[in-house]
Amino acid sequence: MNNSKQEQARFAQMVKAASPDSRLALDCARAFVVGGAICTVGQFITNSFMSYGFVKTDASMYTAVILIFFGVLLTGIGVYDNLGKFAGAGSFVPITGFANAMAAPAIEYKREGYVLGVGAKMFIVAGPVIVYGIAASVVCGAVYYIIT
Amino acid sequence: MNKNLGRQSVAFENCITVTSVASVVGKKEGEGPLGARFDEVHEDAMLGKKSWEQGEAEFLKKALEKAAEKASLTQADIDYVVAGDLMNQSTSSSFVLRDMPVPFFGIFGACSAFGEGLGLGSVILDGGFARHVLVGAASHFCAAEKQFRFPLELGGQRPLTATWTVTGAGAAVLSLGGEGPYVRGITTGKIIDMGVKDMANMGAAMAPAAADTMAAHLREFGRSPGYYDVIATGDLGYVGRELVVELMAEQGYDIRANYTDCGIEIYDQQTQDTHSGGSGCACSAVTFAAMYYPKLVSGELRRVLLIPTGALGNQTTALQGESIPGIAHAVVIESAGA
Q1: Which of A11, B152, B213, B281 has the fewest CB atoms in 10 Å of its CB?
Q2: Whole-prediction pTM value?
Q3: Helix %, strand %, coil % for chain A, to 5?
Q4: How far is B302 from chain A (nearest CA, A)?
């Protein structure tokens, strides 16, 4: 076996055949159930606030705060990573996943100090989401401005 | 006399004995199939230290001390320490050697470190430059995840091709003379890179290197796979093992009867959620120490070919789109009666 392009391509085929695929149907089902459950809890919290007379925007904001709190709490006590292992995108996409993505590196890099450890490394997972989230919002805002 | 057999292999003239071995591992390894055979199993992954990195160093320290103690050697009796680990710049090894005033060769071969160490240690002994060489290798799941992948508490899924870094350290005392088991020869690996870029499929990245070294070894020593009771690669796991079997078959070698991988032996795939198996510097070191060495001493196994394997990329090179170079070093260990 040499490392020519042909041999590399042939080996890539062998690797593909030898590597087990992820369990797509099962993973999707779990993500749907857990992601849906988290969002349902969020909706329940929003509705509860609104039933006590809060306007929708305020109720949504408090819901986000509560969900973030529980995302961080469950990360801190070592539950959220197991949830993520089970649910994949189902627990990563909701706002609790974003909280997990901030809290996990914050815990991990505490040993490296509060400035260059926690402060800097906190964004290693969530950073790209923030950067490209803001960039996408700007683009969408511009498009919205033009078409209205 | 010329000790070189071909391009990569060396047969030793002198008797080089593996005088003692030691294995110190973490909780998960202790719960695996080899659990009862390790010298020490520790529940605390930090071993009372303040970080996982310090924990890795402490595992190595305990393994080195244990191996020396079993061989009834003091630090003054040991001529060289040859050790490696998985941390950047091999810091774990250097930190351990702070408290050990012994000449030190720090080696980097990623997870092939134990094979590289046994090989270099044997060369030093066969050359007559030492009486006793202490070899060690360590890795740590948490420290490796932190350095190479994501924070531990991040909720995500590991691909089924991923392997699980062994937390622990293995060590061996090599001595000139003695009563065996003997290191009879080595085949030093070449860097082989077949273009695998997937950091979550290290077994595939290293498999071509393992097969290349294995085939070179058999060719240069003029042996068939059946010469060995066991051929064990270091940490390819299930995916890598299957690829090695295929690659060897292409070269006309049927190795299915006696070939396994330390990453397959160390964990129970069904119950321990390790996906493709174990990996890390400690994988081949502790599996050899706990599983193969005692059988070589008792004579249950007569000839073992241990081939620790290493994937030599880092996170920066992976992000830059580089493929992962692999390496594998073969070491022949035979019982006194073989």
Answers
A1: B152
A2: 0.94
A3: 85, 0, 15
A4: 31
